[in-house]
Design the sequence.
């Protein structure tokens, strides 16, 4: 199993793509979020991931930088189904707000023959807090992160080998979600900027955290590894080194600060 980081930036970055990634295993893949536009198609192409090999996608919430790329994924998958090029299902997992957004955009913007694929074989599963499902060789549990700004889901995924991955969406780890995140092997979480740049990027006003705060959460939760993303793009040339150094001041485990299109073995 590997994570292919398709994008690592926040909503308005221009020097990298919005944060989204795919799990890839034995030639099959599953997408988590899709960025803010059809740039997702370019990122998938650069990463060597084919939509024909994709099982579906999990969408954390309905903000533009997470859900609009999903519209393009749905469009391309529905088109391949309409043309008879794909018959096996593609499943979208998300909360009710995301489903309403996707349904509205699709109804207004996609051709009628594509819409006929909705339901079967293009499936939409509306998730509630605590719902479980299986994708690839992973058992997923979706949970409501109890965001104050937008209905949003994180997840806990258990691999066949027992490795546990926890994702907080694009907000800090909230204490209410500790049962899903405590002691995970990998914590995937946002880190908007360095502490010294807080006055420039204002992470707290956007319900985000500094690198040190994200690292401190991983330390509190006892996570073995932390993967930091959803960052600003003004410091890309030095981001990995600087973010890792700051995270180390608050966290004892392994630290990963990936670039776009980087692959991480889990």
Sequence:
């Amino acid at each position: 199993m590997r994570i292919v980081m398709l994008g690592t930036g926040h909503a308005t970055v221009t020097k990298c793509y919005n944060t989204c990634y795919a799990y890839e295993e034995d030639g099959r893949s599953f997408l988590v979020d899709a960025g803010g536009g059809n740039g997702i198609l370019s990122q998938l192409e650069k990463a060597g991931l084919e939509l024909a090999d994709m099982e579906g996608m999990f969408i954390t919430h309905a903000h533009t930088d997470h859900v609009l790329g999903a519209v393009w994924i749905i469009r391309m998958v529905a088109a391949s189904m309409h043309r008879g090029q794909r018959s096996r299902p593609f499943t979208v997992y998300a909360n009710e707000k995301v489903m309403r957004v996707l349904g509205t955009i699709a109804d207004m913007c996609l051709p009628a023959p594509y819409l006929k694929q909705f339901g079967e074989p293009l499936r939409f599963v509306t998730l509630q807090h605590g719902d479980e499902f299986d994708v690839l060789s992973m058992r997923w549990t979706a949970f409501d992160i109890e965001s104050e700004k937008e209905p949003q889901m994180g997840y806990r995924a258990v691999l066949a080998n027992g490795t546990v991955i926890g994702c907080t969406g694009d907000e800090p780890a909230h204490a209410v979600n500790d049962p899903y995140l405590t002691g995970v092997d990998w914590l995937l979480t946002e880190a908007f900027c360095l502490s010294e740049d807080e006055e420039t990027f204002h992470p707290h006003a956007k319900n985000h955290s500094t690198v040190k705060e994200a690292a401190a959460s991983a330390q509190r939760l006892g996570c073995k590894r932390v993967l930091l993303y959803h960052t600003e793009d003004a410091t890309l040339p030095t981001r990995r080194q600087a973010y890792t150094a700051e995270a180390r001041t608050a966290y004892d485990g392994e630290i990963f600060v990936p670039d776009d299109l980087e692959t991480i073995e889990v």
Residues 30 and 189 are 18 Å apart (CA to CA).
